[in-house]
Amino acid sequence: MICLLSPAKTLMETSASLASTFRKSDVALKSKVSCSKPTLEKQSRRLVESMQQLNKKQLKDLLGVSDAIADLNFNRFKDFYNQKEYIASYLYDGPAYKGLNAMEMNDEELKTLEKSLCILTGLYGYVKAFDVIQPYRLDMGKKLQADGCKNLYDYWKTQNITKSIGLFAKQNGAKIVLNCASQEYAKVVDFAMLENDFDIKVVNCVFKANSGRLASVFAKQARGMMVRYVATTNPSTLDDLQGFSGSAGHFRYSGVESNGTDIVFERFETPITKRAGNYIQNQKRKVVNGGGGETNAVQREKKAKRDTGSKEQMSTQVSTHRRGTRRSSRVVKAKTEES
């Protein structure tokens, strides 16, 4: 199984460079996985050249960013290949990559991630988890023209991005492509071609709220957490994904809403473990209170009887007290008369 994931706009350049990553590891990363160049690196060079032909204002207008971000990326592209190199899955730092948290994986999980992740990107087409890349900013939806193509979707389709992903999946024995990418990025891939030409089943991973609309940040985090789940459990079938619950147990598989093309997970505000604990406590209370499953009406009737019994008992105690008081008064009066 391989996963498709979108990149992130936020980059972690300060701590994710190739050199600093090695320093952070007890064992050099190269002993765990193979760092490599992106498969479509040559094709990406044409886009770099197109970006280098833009002046600062043109670049800002194309990217739709602030002056500061425009300055940063203008300088990046001006001397692009002399920048520091970064490992792709460590460089990206948005919510999805916090959910992925590749830096905390063990050796086996890293090896599985290496074979199971394709990050779709506007500049590189797609990169694998441990491809080495330069920092950049170029979203897939931007209308950068190159080689006669009017936008990046057209460009990457002419560069056979789908075929390249299909070959990557086949090389790693994958029979399922799990689409965890956003629509902006996913539509650059021809899913029908993957299914027809490579005999690979494509399934969309859908995250939604149990009630209301799911916040974007939760959806992004869940996509990364699902990729992590694939890397840590190495599933071979869609059924193997049903145990996914997210890092804090907020998600649950929805068999009712899942179908042949979508596997759906619902997010609950209360984590699964806490919901289960609350359920058990409620069942215990029902048993203590006279057996499970009592209706509200029965419970109200029992309470009314208890209240009535208490009132009758109190009334009896008051009457007894009054009779005792009158009796004592008569005795005192008789003794007084005798005196």
Automatic annotation (TrEMBL):
Region named Disordered: 286-339
InterPro entries: YaaA (IPR005583)
GO cellular component: cytosol
Compositional bias per record (Basic residues), positions renumbered to this chain: 320-333
Chain intervals with Basic and acidic residues compositional bias: 299-310
GO annotation (BP), single: response to hydroperoxide
A matching Pfam family: H2O2_YaaD
Protein name, per record: Uncharacterized protein
